[in-house]
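Task 17 of the worksheet. Students: predict the tertiary structure of the chain below and write it out as C-alpha cells. Keep your answer in the requested format; marks are given for formatting as well as content.
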Amino acid sequence: MQTKKAALGSAAFFVIAPGGVAGLLPWLLTRWRFEPLWLPLRVAGVVVLAAALAVLVSAFARFVSEGFGTPAPVAPPDRLVVGGLYRYVRNPMYLAVLSLILGQALLFGQWILLVYAAVVALAFTAMVRWHEEPVLLRDFGAQYERYRAAVPGWWPRLRPWSAD
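Model answer:
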C-alpha cells in the first residue's frame, strides 16, 4: 500500500474507530457534563487524556511509517508493526483508547464511563484473542510468534524488545 493511501486510510479509521469508541459513545453517555469531583482527580484526567492521545497518534503513525498500511482490518499493514511503542506492548492502541475513556471518567466525574471502559476492555480482549492474533499468525507466521512470545499484550515491558 502506498504511504499516502495508508496515511489517508489511517486518518479515516482514526476518526471512525477510536473517535466513536472514545469520543462519540462517551459523549452520548455523559454529554460531557461535569459532576462534582475533587480537583486533583480532574487534573489527573487531563494528564491521562493527553498521554493517551499521544500514544494513540504515535501508534497509528507507526502503521503508516513501518507497516505501510492501516490499523483497519480492510487495509492491513504489509509488514508486522513491532517498532516504537510496540516494542513495549502489543496493543498500545487499545490501551490508549481505554485510557481516553478513563481520563474522561476522571475529568468529568462520570462514573458510568468506568462501567463502559470495562465493557470496552472485554470487547477489545475478545477481538484480539479471537480475531487479531489468528490473523497475525496466519499473515506473519514465525515472526509474529517470536514477537508475541517476547512482548506482552496488555502490560508493558520495562525495557524495549528488539527484533534482532
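Marker's comment: The longest helix spans residues 112-150. Helices lie at 3-30, 39-65, 92-108, 112-150.
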